[in-house]
User: Fold this.
Amino acid sequence: MATLATENIQKADLPKTWQGETRILLSLGVPMALTQLIAFAVYTIDVLMIGRISPEDLAAASLGTVIYFALWMVGSGPIMAVSPLVSQALGANQNDTRDVRRSVRMALWAIFLMFPVALIALAFTEPVALALGQDPGVSAKAGDYVFALSFGWPFALATMALRNFLAALEKTKVPLVLVALTTAINAGLNYLLIFGTFGFPRLELVGAGIASSLSYTTGFFLFVVYILIDKQAKKFELFDRFWVSDWQRLKEVVALGWPISLTTIFEGMLFNTAVIMMGLIGIMEVAAYQISINVVALAFMLPWGLSMAGAVRIGLAKGAENIAATQRAAAVTLVAATLSVVALALVIAVFPVNVAAFYLDLNDPANSEVIRLVLLFLPIAAAFMIFDAGQVAANQLLRGLKDVRWPMYLTGVSYWIIGFPVALYLGLGTTFGAVGIWYGLTAGLIAATLFLGARLWWIAWRNAGH
Assistant:
């Protein structure tokens, strides 16, 4: 095995110009953005196909997803910790295979150790939904959907850990292909199990959950095989003696990961709580919100992918103790992430009818109320996409610097001291109704962009080198 004791220390070779950093970020970030987009398509395919069953099933999928992703966010911390741990280790020494192996392996351990608890928690989806005042029929369907979906939970997260490891090695093209293959498998299984084609049982919403679980599991093993055969990746020996514990590194992964989990929860649960608030207004509002937030989330994959690439770049620069490269990585990432959503935001704002047509049959009278609401939501959603891109870029860059405590505090204030009260008051306490909830979400994103941007400036510029 390769160790620090037997190999020469070789710091990361970083570009010395803005053009060089931009070129590398885009070469790494564009495939990562496409990978994120395709990975999210697993969920989007579910929404598109479930929407063809009924608005009630679409509302149930939305409600179930809120609870599923609450547990997903809890487990995301150790996964997200892989990127800064690995990139900074490689920045300090490109030959440090042992340190990288320890981080990735213990992140995977953390996920599978959490799985039994997550499985039990997800089994209570229906009673939780009922306790939140949701429609009984929708709650029952949501419970069945999440139960089927829950068995793919650890594999979805573990795949992300392996993708983060490969991203730190600047390997993005093959992961893109593997994620695309996984998505194609999900689409095929959806077609068979939701609608009961080619002799398969018609399972509708439950079929969508089973299809997603199977595709997540398949995707994980595809990545394992690739890492075992790739010339560069296999030298890290991630799966050799995988059962051997490393409690010290597991503790470090969890210590870095839990603030990341809370940061993710603060943001994600604001948007998920919006589903609950929409449900208190009506089922059609939930269905319309589901479609609108799905559109925004698809667009979000572009800045998210670029920002994840930026986290790798700034982590390498930090590990190499190169202040100028750290600042270049931060600036280039912020600009690229923000510009990546401008054109999409304009399309969504100007052509909301065309966007809605991808999700619903515009000629079906049963969909008229959902369509009306979607056309109200999308222009507002397009506006806050710009701020969403800014906050995710700043957040990922801070994460790449291993600055996770302050972002946790700042996002908590932004989303729950500012965003949530505004959404609650305007949505349920005024005549704005469902539109007011969107205004609250926007307020939270604006605050997060400003606070996280200020923190990044303080760390990368004002206090650089300390």
Notes: The two ends are 34 Å apart (CA to CA).
